Amino acid sequence: MVEDNRLIAVIRLRGPSGISYDNEYTFKLLNLKRANHATILNYSKNIAGMLRKVNGFITWGEINEKTLLNLLSKKSNLNIEMIKKAGYNSLEELVHALYKGEIKISKLIKIGFKPIFRLHPPSHGFKKSIKRKFKSNGEAGYRGEAINDLLNRMI
């Protein structure tokens, strides 16, 4: 299995209506239970398969360090005791280590971090249809670095 150190943010765009059991199970594995929920994942071949399976209901892309810091400081359950338990002195150090791949999300989960972020709908709404792919003038699917703009509008 080929893994890289990319951190990706995944946002669920659509709710549970009309979704098959298999897709709902995939959402459960991704920790995306409701619309406007987001999660941070270490990209891997297995994660890529799950994202491909629920491609029409989510959007994802590579999160940058500034947006990750903003997301963790405003929408996570991380506190200073959990950060110290992970071996870091501040949230900025932890975010830098996460972004560089020195620590995995799974290690943070073991000390009590919940990788679910309950976000607001984007300010001024979605600009395009959430039923169409990002490349086809929509909002769903892979969007690369543009995920940071959407996340900052939803935090």
Keywords:
155 residues; alpha/beta; 6 strands; globular
What does this structure look like?
This protein is an alpha/beta fold and 155 residues long. The chain is built from 7 helices and 6 strands, in the order E-H-E-H-E-H-H-H-H-E-E-E-H. Helix 3 packs across helix 5. 38% of the residues lie in helices and 23% in strands. A 6-stranded mixed sheet has the order 4-2-1-3-6-5, with helices on both faces.
Task: Lay out the secondary structure.
Elements: E1 3-12, H1 21-29, E2 37-44, H2 45-53, E3 58-62, H3 65-75, H4 80-85, H5 91-100, H6 105-110, E4 117-118, E5 129-133, E6 138-142, H7 147-154
Parallel strand pairs: 3-6, 5-6
Antiparallel strand pairs: 1-2, 1-3, 2-4
Low-pLDDT runs of 5+ residues are none
Note the beta-strand portion. Answer: 15-25%
Structural class: alpha/beta
User: Percent helix among the residues?
Assistant: 25-40%
Distance between the termini: 33 Å
Q: What's the helix count?
A: 7
The major beta sheet can be summarized as:
6 strands, mixed
Radius of gyration: 15 Å
Strand arrangement, major sheet: 4-2-1-3-6-5
Number of strands: 6
Shape: globular
Order of helices and strands: EHEHEHHHHEEEH
Average pLDDT confidence is 92
